C-alpha cells in the first residue's frame, strides 16, 4: 500500500509514524505510544517532487486548511494519477471538501474529525498526548449522510489500515454532524482566544462574561449545523446540552490551554478562519440564519490577522 | 463666579483657559485660539483640597467617566456645600448622570456632548485642533426632554459664561438625543479599534468587512437610542443615513486617527467602556432590544482590558 501524507506538521507526523515503522527522521514522544522515531520511504518538499511515477492508494492531507490563501486541490495534481486514489482530508472545519470535489469529482474523498493533540516543536520533536483517534466517513454531500458505511470498500479498507496501525478508528453514521459538532466549539472559542487579547481556553470558560458569550456563539453554530445536516448534531447530547459539555471539557484541560488558532496568531502564521468561521457563516446566510456573534468575531479576527501578518515577510 | 474644574486632562484644561485668563501654568496650542498659558486661581490634587470654604457656582467634571472603578459622585462631596452648585458633566457616554442624580438629587445637573479635540502631552502641553464647542442641556431624566431651555436660569447663565469665554455654546432641545447620536459612533468604532488588533478609525472605515460591521453595530445603537429617547436621534439625518454619515466623517479625519479608547488601551489605562457600551447594553435589555454585536465587542473588550491592566501596577 502506498500512502502519501501531505503536510509534515504535528498531525501528519503522528499518522505517518503509526502507519509505517522504520528508523530515524522524526522523533515523537507520546503519552500513549511512548518514544518513536521513523524515516518515511521518502520525504518530499512538494507534491511535484512526490510524483515518482507510482500511484498512491491514499493521500492523507494533513496540512492546515487555508483555501482563502490557495486552492488546496491544485497542490495534489502531480500525485493524483487516476480516480482510484482515495483523498483523505485529515482536517477540521466546514466545507473543506469543496475544492477537492470540484477538482477530483470521481475520486473517493474521506473526510475526518481530528482528535490528535500533537504539537510540533522547532527541533522536529513532536509532543503527543493521549489522543490518537480518527473519526471519518466517505464524503458524499454536505448533509454527510453515510448510512451503512462498511458496505463501502473504501471505508472498510481504511478502517483496517488504521486499526492495524494502532489508531482508534471511528466511523460515525454521519461524519458531517460530527464535524459540525466539533466546529461548534472551535468557531466559538478559537477566534475569541485571539481577539479578547490572547487568552487561554480556560480563561475564557471561567470568566463569566466570556463564558456567556461562548455559550451564545455555540448556540448560533448549533442552529446552523442542525439545519445544514438536517437534524441533531449529537446522538446523546441535545442541542441545549452541547454548550455546557464544551465549557466543561475546556475547564477539564490542563492550563494554559492555548487554542491552535491562537498558537498560529502568536507565531504570525495564517489562521484557519475560512473553514472554521467563513464557510459556516456563508452556510448560515444560505439557510437564512443570523449568526451575529460569529460574524462579528470573524470580521475582527481577519482584521487582526491583516496587521499580524503584515508585520512579517509573507511566506 | 467660582468654577471648579475637576480633571486637568486635555478637556478640563481647554475649558479652564477659555473661562479664565491669567499667566503661567498650562500651555495650550490651539489652531483656533493660538498659543495660551494660564494659571488657575488654585490647583488642587483632590476635591478635598479644593474645599476651601467657598461655595462653587459651577463644578465642571472633565474626568474620564469610569463608574465601574469608583463612584464618581462621591469624589465631589467635599466641594458641594449646597444644592445651588451646578454640576456640569463634560463627558460623553450614556447614563453618566445616574450617580450624581442619586447622590445630589436637588442640585441642577448640566450634561454635555463633548467636541473638544484636545490631547495632553507628557510635558503638560495641550494640543488643540479647531473644535471648541459645547452642546449641553439641563438633565431632567433619561428621555432628555429639555423644552424651552432658556427659560431656565441655570442654562441661560451657563450659556452666557461660555459665550463670553469664546466657546461655541449649543443648547439642543434634547441633549440625550445628541449624546446617543454621538454614542452610536463611539460604541461601534471605539471597541472595534482595540479588539481588531489596534487599528485606526480610517482603517476600520475603509476595510469592507469592518465597515459593514461598523454599520450593523451603529444600527443596533440607533434602535436603542431612538427607543430610549422616544424618537429620531437627529433633526436632519434619518436613522438609515446616520451610519453613512459617521463612516464619511471618519474617512474625512487625518490619519492615523487613533480613537481615545485605543489611546487608553495603548497607555494601559482604564477605558470608558461602562458609559459607552455597558450602560447602553443594559438600556437595550430593559427595552427588550437585541444588541449582539455591541455586546460581543463589550465582552471581548473587557477581557482584553483585564489582561492589559493586570500587566501594570493598579493606579
TrEMBL record, chains A, B:
InterPro entries recorded = 6-PGluconate_DH-like_C_sf, 6PGD_dom2, KPA_reductase, KPR-Related, KPR_N, NAD(P)-bd_dom_sf
- Mind telling me which SUPFAM superfamilies this protein's record contains? 6-phosphogluconate dehydrogenase C-terminal domain-like, NAD(P)-binding Rossmann-fold domains
Residues in domain Ketopantoate reductase C-terminal? 174-303
- Organism superkingdom: Eukaryota
Q: Name one GO cellular component term.
A: cytoplasm
Residue stretches making up the Ketopantoate reductase N-terminal domain: 4-138
Q: Which Pfam families match?
A: ApbA, ApbA_C
What is the official name of this protein in its record? 2-dehydropantoate 2-reductase
Amino acid at each position: 500500500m502506498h500512502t502519501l501524507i501531505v503536510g509534515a506538521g504535528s498531525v501528519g507526523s503522528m499518522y505517518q509514524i503509526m502507519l509505517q515503522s522504520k528508523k530515524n527522521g522524526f522523533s515523537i514522544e507520546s503519552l500513549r505510544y511512548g518514544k518513536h522515531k521513523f524515516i518515511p520511504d521518502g520525504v518530499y518538499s512538494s507534491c511535484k517532487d512526490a510524483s515518482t511515477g507510482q500511484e498512491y492508494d491514499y493521500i492523507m492531507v494533513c496540512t492546515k486548511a487555508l483555501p482563502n490563501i490557495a486552492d488546496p486541490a491544485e497542490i495534489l495534481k502531480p500525485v493524483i494519477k487516476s480516480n482510484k486514489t482515495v483523498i483523505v482530508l485529515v482536517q477540521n472545519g466546514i466545507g473543506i471538501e469543496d475544492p477537492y470535489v470540484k477538482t477530483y469529482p470521481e475520486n473517493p474523498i474521506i473526510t475526518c474529525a481530528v482528535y490528535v493533540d500533537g504539537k510540533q516543536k522547532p527541533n522536529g520533536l513532536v509532543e503527543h498526548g493521549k489522543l490518537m483517534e480518527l473519526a471519518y466517513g466517505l464524503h458524499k454531500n454536505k448533509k454527510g449522510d453515510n448510512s451503512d458505511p462498511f458496505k463501502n470498500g473504501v471505508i472498510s479498507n481504511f478502517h483496517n489500515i488504521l486499526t492495524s496501525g494502532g489508531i482508534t478508528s471511528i466511523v460515525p453514521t454521519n461524519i458531517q454532524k460530527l464535524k459540525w459538532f466539533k466546529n461548534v466549539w472551535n468557531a466559538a472559542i478559537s477566534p475569541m482566544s485571539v481577539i479578547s487579547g490572547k487568552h487561554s481556553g480556560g480563561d475564557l470558560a471561567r470568566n463569566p462574561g466570556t463564558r456567556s458569550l461562548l455559550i451564545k456563539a455555540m448556540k448560533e453554530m448549533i442552529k446552523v449545523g442542525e439545519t445544514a445536516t438536517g437534524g441533531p448534531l449529537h446522538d446523546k447530547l441535545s442541542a441545549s446540552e452541547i454548550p455546557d459539555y464544551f465549557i466543561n471539557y475546556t475547564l477539564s484541560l490542563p492550563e494554559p490551554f492555548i487554542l491552535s488558532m491562537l498558537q498560529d496568531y502568536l507565531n504570525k502564521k495564517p489562521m484557519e478562519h475560512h473553514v472554521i468561521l467563513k464557510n459556516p457563516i456563508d452556510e448560515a446566510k444560505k439557510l437564512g440564519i443570523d449568526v451575529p456573534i460569529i460574524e462579528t468575531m470573524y470580521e475582527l479576527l481577519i482584521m487582526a490577522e491583516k496587521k499580524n501578518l503584515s508585520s512579517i515577510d509573507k511566506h
